[in-house]
Amino acid sequence: MSTVKYVLSEDRIPKVWYNIQADLPEPAPPVLHPGTGPPIGPDDLAPLFPMQLIVQEVSTEKFIEIPDPVRDIYRQWRPTPLFRARRLEKALDTPARIYYKFEGISPVGSHKPNTAVAQAFYNKEEGVKRLATETGAGQWGSSLAMACAFFGLDCDVFMVRVSYEQKPYRRGLIEAFGASVTPSPSNKTNAGRAILAQDPDSRGSLGIAISEAVEVAASDPNTKYSLGSVLNHVLLHQTVIGQEALEQFEMADDYPDVVIACAGGGSNFAGLAFPFVGKNLRGEAGSRIVAVEPAACPTLTKGTYAYDFGDTAHLTPMVKMHTLGSSFMPPAIHAGGLRYHGMAPLVSHLFELGAIEATTVHQTDAFAAGIQFARAEGIIPAPESNHAVAQAITEALKCKEEGVSRSIVFNLSGHGHFDMQAYMDYAQNKLKDYDYPVEAVEAALAGLPNVDA
Amino acid sequence: MSTVKYVLSEDRIPKVWYNIQADLPEPAPPVLHPGTGPPIGPDDLAPLFPMQLIVQEVSTEKFIEIPDPVRDIYRQWRPTPLFRARRLEKALDTPARIYYKFEGISPVGSHKPNTAVAQAFYNKEEGVKRLATETGAGQWGSSLAMACAFFGLDCDVFMVRVSYEQKPYRRGLIEAFGASVTPSPSNKTNAGRAILAQDPDSRGSLGIAISEAVEVAASDPNTKYSLGSVLNHVLLHQTVIGQEALEQFEMADDYPDVVIACAGGGSNFAGLAFPFVGKNLRGEAGSRIVAVEPAACPTLTKGTYAYDFGDTAHLTPMVKMHTLGSSFMPPAIHAGGLRYHGMAPLVSHLFELGAIEATTVHQTDAFAAGIQFARAEGIIPAPESNHAVAQAITEALKCKEEGVSRSIVFNLSGHGHFDMQAYMDYAQNKLKDYDYPVEAVEAALAGLPNVDA
Questions:
Q1: Stated pTM of the model
Q2: Does A411 lie in the same domain as A332?
Q3: What Å distances lie between residue A413 and A20, A242, A263, A306, A311, CA to CA?
């Protein structure tokens, strides 16, 4: 009894992205202008994004065609395999059927290229010369750097300083692709200088790095901004994951009772989950859909649903989302990709609608699950993905307790080959578990903009 | 025009390993007993290896069946893709058709699990409880650790001290799979203690680490030894690579004029090349077959073809191979997997027969090629694989010069996600090029055992 792999042929790479906005029972609240308050239009976003992405951001078309050059590049690693984790099932002695979709097979080892390639393509089409972006642990930065290398675009990456210093190897990968990397906060932008004036030793946050990248893009007509999560068009591009998984479940003659993914900004979660959520919303299925957050940064589970800024310096538009406050600095957990004060507006909206659940996992429990998974399945997961692994194991053990066989699928959004220091720290009992700092969150939430649509 | 992927369905994972010994025009010279000199028999190897592997070591059957449990595990990442590197071809502006077989898609990121899984299986079948092995940069150690986790075997890895200290992250991976890692030379063995007595600061070598692992296995009836390259059965297991490539070239309606792989101990080279060499030997094809060595450790190109020991302490049998002398300590290049004093006897024999060519590449040229490849194809190669990439680019540029289109295939034996320090050192001009130290090699060769079969 070994791990089973469900492989789709290349012609089954989705030809369209699935837009969940078409299936929402009520539309998500509008995006508001950062300075003036009223809902923004496409022109307000034009300094930051190419028009095709702005159109996707607000589209309610159910399917949006994937351009051939993007699909051609997807072809290098897509369709990604769906595995049935038979060896893990056996190790857990569970009647559950555990599946995982493995996005770590992409050249940079995560799901992020699904949108990076699309974003680089549309920017290139519209004559953009350079993209500016932020990155935490570097999964996103390395993906966009790769995509920019493919399309001949320059790429400037603002990397959260704590990761820049502690995780130099993803920085090395970003630079190998020819992109430039700046530790954030930096002296290159007003936003960065303002933070450094307050705190010269600031270790940075995704919110600050976003401010810096947005400022760079807004101040240069040849440069646009690129974001690796949160926005509707980013989540849209990731839906190739879930669409493939739907086909692979047909091959397996099964359907998931529970769909699980970790959630930081929301992109890998949306990528796997939205096509399944869509089936639920259309009354075609009834899976439980579970977003897993770190206990240290529990945006959906403990945040407020309100209008907030995407960044620290309040340069971005305001979006209605679950937030811990844009000035909140999450504790230094190793899952850098989950250290964000907000949650994608579409994910937040679905949570408010009761269409999805959310739960939290502490980081030592996440790493324990990752080790157990690696010994059974051979793949060492990224620290972010470990949160999904932990929840899948919890659900599988519940099946064992109850004596029922349920079908569980989770998104193994990336491999952990760049994250071995975290595993070594875990093995030496050096990892701390953090609960979210209640007072700091309360202070950050007190600063929320007092607006509603 | 983008990268093209040739994917075989899972039922096309080879059902057999290809044994080139069946097609040799003359057999390879016999293995000699380390103490007594005459050719060894199966019983002499029994303390180190399970009988099934000993049988494979000397077999002249053309095909050896792959056991189902091994094939079941292969299924997780095999068949690996064969890519046509269209974007690299375009970047080089070459009429050459460049293909690469990508083994970095395995859970640990290299070709090594192809034999690790087989070796763990046969040992488990014969009741062995523990495997002892050596590792350089850690590709092999992590692969065997994974395979041992799958089969419930203990695993002791002696890791060359310089890598243990400079490359902690593959050590972390080995430990994550539950194996124990000891820096070599160590105080755990007579072989290690003897080296440390001579040089307390010894940074180790593969030859020393092999001595330690062999000693541990020989002194415990429940422990056997496992080697990641050099031996006939190890090369045999890797032939799944080339067999798949042959089928994939049929899909591509092409056939390689040039087959390229890097060569340290010889296993990834043999894996891709032997099925093509077999076609040549049987008069069915006429590809050039090129082994690429580091200029710092040019075993085939500068070594002597003679009987030598596989290890430093002379505990292993003597094999006839191209060697730089078993006491030779190769310069500290980053391609740890190519830092071995000898070359697989079968590869050496084929070189003597004129069936294969060999060439060398300096490490900065190898890294330059790796960067060029990464920017075109998205995958950052392992430092070892960069030697093959460099040679493929050289061949492709020769095509351009000559205005001819040839088909070139190389083995991309692993990804470089664990090797970013080397890339960062390269980017900062910190990497040195080494030629092989002529005097040190002459001294080591002077110590060769004075025997012949």
A1: 0.97
A2: yes
A3: 20, 12, 11, 28, 24
Instruction: Give the tens place of pLDDT for each residue, A109-155.
Output: 999 999 999 999 999 999 999 999 999 889 999 999 999 999 999 99
**Residues 2 to 31 of A: which have CB under 8 A from any B CB?**
2-5, 7, 9-10
- Based on the fold, state whether residues A203 and A146 are members of the same structural domain: yes
Give domain status of residue B331, yes or no.
Answer: yes
- The closest of B370, B376, B379 to B423, measured between CA atoms, is B370
Q: Specify the number of domains making up chain B.
A: 2
The domain that contains B392 carries what CATH number?
3.40.50.1100
pLDDT at A274 over 90: yes
Asked if residue B3 is part of any domain, the answer here is: no
Q: Which tens digits make up the pLDDT trace of B236-278? A: 999 999 999 999 999 999 999 999 999 999 999 999 999 999 9
Which positions 66-85 of A are in contact with B (Cβ < 8 Å)? 69, 72-73, 75-76, 83
Boundary residue ending a domain (A178, A197, A228): A228
Name which of B71, B91, B69 is nearest B79 in CA terms: B71
For residue A341, which amino acid is it? H
Residue A443, chain B, CB below 8 Å: the answer is no
Q: Do B375 and A177 touch (CB under 8 A)?
A: yes
**Could you report the per-residue pLDDT of B131-143, keeping only the tens digit for each?**
999 998 899 999 9
Range of the domain at B403: 79-109+233-445
Would you state the structure tokens that stand for residue A313, as one six-digit string? 């310096």
A293-346 pLDDT, tens digit per residue, is 999 999 999 999 999 999 999 999 999 999 999 999 888 888 888 999 999 999
Contacts 24+ apart (CB under 8 A), A28-33: A28/A232, A28/A320, A28/A345, A28/A346, A28/A349, A29/A307, A29/A320, A29/A345, A29/A349, A29/A453, A30/A453, A31/A317, A31/A318, A31/A319, A31/A345, A32/A307, A32/A317, A32/A318, A32/A319, A32/A451, A32/A453, A33/A317, A33/A318
Answer whether A107 sits within 8 Å of B377, measured CB to CB.
yes
| Inter-chain touch A9–B7, beta carbons under 8 Å | yes
CB contact under 8 A, A173 and B109: no
Over residues A10-57, the pLDDT tens digits come to 889 999 999 999 999 999 999 999 877 789 989 999 999 999 999 999
Task: Tell me if A28 is assigned to some domain.
Answer: no
